[in-house]
Amino acid sequence: MRYHLLVPTDFSENAWSAALYALKLYANKPCTFYFSHAWTFLNSGSRTHISQSYIDPLIEEAKAQLEAVKEKAKQESSNNDHEFETIFSFGSLMDSIEFANKEHNIDLVVMGTKGATGAKKLFLGSNAVTVINRVRRAPLLLVPKKSRYETPKKILFPTAFNRFFGEEIKRVKQLAELHLSSIDILHINKKETLSEIQNSNLESLKTELEDFDLNFNWMSDYNSKAIAITDFIKDNDINILAMINYEHSFIENLVKEPIIKKLGFHSKIPFMIIPRID
């Protein structure tokens, strides 16, 4: 299988950290990496006319920067089955991602996040939140600022077992297959409290993941899912967090509240968000 990865970049350190993570995560797999940049000119003086002769050099500079990122990524890769392309577009980041998804059948979008910094403890940043809310074609892997790559030996998949696991679970399986990772299933409640439907979904999940090193975990002494997940990650040396973005899910609540200190969610590891399939 050849993977198609989209790596949007604004030429920042965060974006390059995400690119490096993607290169290492897929180091031994045939891949095409698409480095994309969405160029927008913001004119703070709305009544001031800006000539095309001023704008054109800025566009050319951005194109050159994008090409430089691609060449830098080539130097980092030692896999002859890695291919590198650039996508330069005008408009919003979201438009650029949606275009790439349609044109190139993207398997994963990899983005850097700001990390919990500053007085407001911003976790994601407005761009990442927009992408989480609107991307429906491919999973999104958010890589925290200055995240150091570690071979993902352990993947955490929290679930309430409220829904049947369909096509979405294939994304977790593909992630685990990259490095033969074990999968920790986390339910934040007691096993004895599961309904008949939840137990049915639990059994279907066991069947779906029977070929993997699978561990089931139950945490009942937490009022906050965010704190439970954070503590489990820390106590069990988890390398990647993966969740499905269902309607009214934990993820939906997370992106509505930018002050991470209030939520108690401090993710220092990559976070894969899998879009629900309606």
UniProtKB/TrEMBL annotation:
CDD domains: USP-like (cd00293). Residues 3-143 form the UspA domain. InterPro entries: Rossmann-like_a/b/a_fold, Universal_stress_UspA, UspA. Belongs to the universal stress protein A family. This is Nucleotide-binding universal stress UspA family protein. It comes from Gelidibacter sediminis. The lineage of its organism: Bacteria, Pseudomonadati, Bacteroidota, Flavobacteriia, Flavobacteriales.
